[in-house]
Write a structure and sequence with these properties.
Length: 307
């Protein structure tokens, strides 16, 4: 590599301020030094990065491509510095997180005070939402989102994956004779989580891969609210098994049609804007979220084993 990484902050400042004078002011260095850094970088790369004259200042096509790499490199430098600092110091600073409604209430919300006790130098800003968030425009550090989620511009780490199961209240189940037939199941689906409302929901059964039409069901955009409706006798619901464990153990819910297996699986993934290193404060929160899931999953097992 012929070019010097120390020239990247100058290049980025030029791109952000759109001028040598403004970049020099931001970096607190002479204009001649800024110009010299840019010329050296262009010479070492053997391309022109910026077209500049008295009237305009714009990136060339090569400059636009190099800018994307420069931003990623500087993100890695900052993240690496924070990671090393984290070996000596506690992580700190503001951490803005987005959480899906069901996961926030059922798994992690009640333990956020524990997180702030463990990491008192991290200041949490929490956004609870049922919508996908734009990490860049909304300035979100990490979003826990319902997946699977594929986006080449985002770093995605799986927090938990759980199968979908059919559940109903004991009172509702007692009213009917149950068979593992799609036609019979369809008539009992009165409410459906919005993401699973479809004319062609893929399921696997005795006849192999088939399609189930759930489009006539009333939609709900929150798993926990749907669970409450089903527990009140609102028919059969398609639910992430994660949110049904305790009601199934207590008898508040009953699983039906276990041989009709939905092909989709519910995931919670952690999304960040960078595709490389996590800052220390983000990494400890993602690890904390995973631990919350493990504790939540083992809670019912521990209670069962104690009886």
């Amino acid at each position: 590599m012929k070019w010097n990484i120390d020239d990247l902050p100058v290049f980025l400042a030029l791109c952000e301020t759109q001028g040598v004078r403004a970049a020099a002011t931001r970096l607190d260095m002479p204009k001649s030094t800024v110009s010299r850094c840019l010329s050296r970088l262009e010479e070492n790369l053997d391309v022109r990065l910026i077209d500049r004259n008295t009237r305009q200042f714009r990136l060339t096509a090569e400059g636009e491509r190099f800018l994307l790499h420069a931003q990623l490199i500087m993100e890695q430098v900052v993240a690496a510095d924070e990671a090393i600092s984290g070996l000596r110091h506690k992580p700190g600073g503001s951490l803005k997180i987005a959480l899906p409604m069901a996961f926030s209430r059922e798994v992690i919300g009640g333990r956020l005070a524990e997180f702030t006790t463990r990491f008192p130098d991290i200041r949490l800003e929490v956004l609870v939402t049922s919508q996908q968030v734009n990490l860049l425009t909304e300035d979100i550090d990490v979003a826990l989102a319902v997946g699977p989620f594929e986006d080449s511009e985002l770093n995605s780490q799986k927090i938990v994956e759980t199968p979908l199961i059919w559940v109903a209240s004991p009172g509702y189940v007692a009213q009917f004779d149950w068979t593992d037939q799609l036609a019979a199941l369809r008539s009992h689906i009165k409410f459906c989580e919005r993401r699973y409302k479809s004319r062609r929901l893929v399921v696997k059964g005795h006849r192999g891969r088939q399609y189930l039409d759930t489009s006539a069901a009333m939609s709900i955009n929150d798993s926990i609210l749907l669970r409450e409706v089903i527990m009140q006798g609102g028919g059969v619901g398609l639910m992430p098994e994660l949110y049904c464990r305790n009601p199934l153990r207590s008898g508040a819910l009953v699983q039906v049609c276990p041989a009709i297996i939905p092909e989709p699986r519910a995931q919670i993934v952690a999304l960040t804007a960078s595709r490389r290193l996590y800052p220390q404060k983000t990494r400890v929160f993602v690890d904390f979220a995973r631990q919350c899931v493990k504790d939540y999953q083992s809670l019912g097992t521990d209670q069962t084993d104690s009886h």
